[in-house]
Prior knowledge:
Blueprint: H1 2-10, H2 18-62, H3 71-119, H4 121-156, H5 161-244, H6 248-259, H7 305-311, H8 325-341, H9 354-359, E1 420-434, E2 443-455, H10 457-464, E3 472-476, E4 481-486, E5 491-493, E6 502-507, H11 509-522, E7 528-538, E8 548-556, E9 560-569, E10 581-588, E11 593-599, E12 603-605, E13 610-615, E14 627-636, E15 646-653, E16 661-665, E17 669-685
Parallel strand pairs: 1-17
Antiparallel strand pairs: 1-2, 2-7, 3-6, 3-16, 4-7, 5-6, 8-9, 9-14, 10-13, 10-15, 11-14, 12-13, 15-17
Helix pairs in contact: 1-5, 2-3, 2-5, 3-5, 4-5
Amino acid sequence: MLFFFLLYWDTKGEKNNGFDVLYHNMKHGQISSKELSDFIRERATIEETYSRSMTKLAKSASNFSQLGTFAPVWDVFKVSTEKLAACHMELVRKLQELIKEVQKYVDEQAKAHKKTKEEVASTLEAVQNIQSVSQALQKSKENYNSKTLELERMRKEGATQRDLDKAGVKVKKATEVYKSYVEKYASTKTEFEQKMAETAQKFQDIEESHIQHMKEIIQSYSCSVEDTHKQIIEVHKEFVNNMENTSAAGLIQKLAESKGTGKERPGKTKHKHTAYKFVHLGAKPRKRKPFTIPDNSFYSSSDSEEEDERRKFHVEIKPVQPNNGTHQHKATIDELKASIGNITLSPSATVRHQHISRRRPKSSYPPKVANSSPPPTAPLARAESSSSLSSNTSLSASNTPTVGTSRGPSPVTLASQDPLPIAVAFTESVNAYFKGADPSKCIVKITGDMTLSFPSGIIKIFTSSPSPAVLSFKLRNTSKLEQILPNQHLLHSDSSQSDTNTKDFWLNMPALTAYLRKCSEQNPVSSYYNVDVLKYQVCSNGIQSTPLNLAVYWKCGSSTTDLRIDYRYNPEAMQPPGPLTSVQVLVPVNGGVTNMQSLPNAIWNTEQSKSLWKLNDISEKSENEGSGSLRAKFELSDGPSIPATLAVQFFNEGSTLSGVDMELVGSGYRLSLNKKRFTSGKTSII
């Protein structure tokens, strides 16, 4: 017990501060944990910045000249740079996970320190007792010495016997007091040393555990960095090997194969006389025949003359009517404009597959699909939430989905032999109506959207493959959903499933490929394209389904209005529980408000006659475990006020209210990101 010796020898002093030193040393351990978390977070930020810069550099390699024999080398640079960016982004992911572990340890450390403080309360009392007894002992000793010296002085000076008797009485009394404090100090010291021995051992155990835990965190940090360095070395070796295997002859051979016009020499050219027949432009036109292509002409294998005749294209060229040259040119342009104006790209155009389906074996893309056209620009209209996978989505942004937009540079290297990366986002919106303080009158509606995000590089793989792997997934925890509305243009499901807690889906790959190609044409610089695949409504259980329970109380008088809003954080409504951020409460108050007093402080908008509270993040770690009240007193010039409807806003990143989740089925794809969040929709109190 090294700490015990520190405390023991400290009792020889006058202030007995050893306990205070060790207690604050324990508290400093918590500060060190937070500082270590900040250090790792800063390292992760640096790595992420570097990874994004490398991704941008790799993307620039795609924009370099693709002409000449050197063009394939840029692909080697691009792939190698993308893999380096992926290595650093993987380190970012590991560091972020480590930060979560450190934060979890900080929280556990705070709880342990709080418990220790309660357990050593009796030791603190013993410290205070011995400090008090030590001071009293010192004073009694000084008083005893003073009275004894006074008696000796009086004897030497020949004082009267009466004065000597009085002084003797004082010496005797001082001696008794001094003796009593000596005895009291001895008993107090025994209790003090016993308590200190126990406390010293407790503090030492805490410190040893703390140091060991910190070393484990640093070890994880070191291993993550070391693994990244090994990956970078492997990527560099691969780059060196690729460049060594890239010869001048090989590059020239690739150019010849891609740009060659043929392997045989052209023969001699023979002149052939061609007779031309002149036709009078004013001749009577022949009867027009329709331009038709039979549906079965694409798939029929018949060689009959009848079929050949049906496959012929019957084309009639209408003679041009004689007219003035200027008017003729003008009419041609007008006709051309009219024709172009009438050309439209219909999203409902279909491609039939009846003949293909009858050749498909019974053991076979999912059932056949009658409509493989690209879906419209917004496959699913959404009113409650945004479809962007961006992490910096603003709650005040438009609720219109932004389909086909970029999430940012892709840190992923796409190769045909590797599983293709996709990302998924679940975005939910809770709409709640609270009436006064009655929880039974709370009405709740929760809706959600599922969005898939594809890196731009996947389009090339889809289009170059005659039959890309079907993207299939399983939706979990569907028993909590009242209704599921899949995107009928892109998504198929098995309606015969008996498991109420899961549901299987697979995508129409031709339609998905066509849609992603269209998005790429509309926004070719994007690195990611988002696709809304389904909407759903969550089963609600009144106020128990809301992450923030609310109640309001009004007291309206002729000259003043008193307002109180009670709120309570409800972690059971979320999967998993997470903090509510950007919490705002907006309250309209009429009656001519001349002055407002609020706790906590609110902002009063005179033009709109509204008060606004902006609160810190609300969670179980908040004061009173996320419960509190907003209070305000309004002075009126034209009262009384009429109770109005309050609006509440909040946001969460990392959780959902439904607990719904997604799992890929089969091979060919991997899930690189699973993003979950929810936001308040129309949340009001009256």
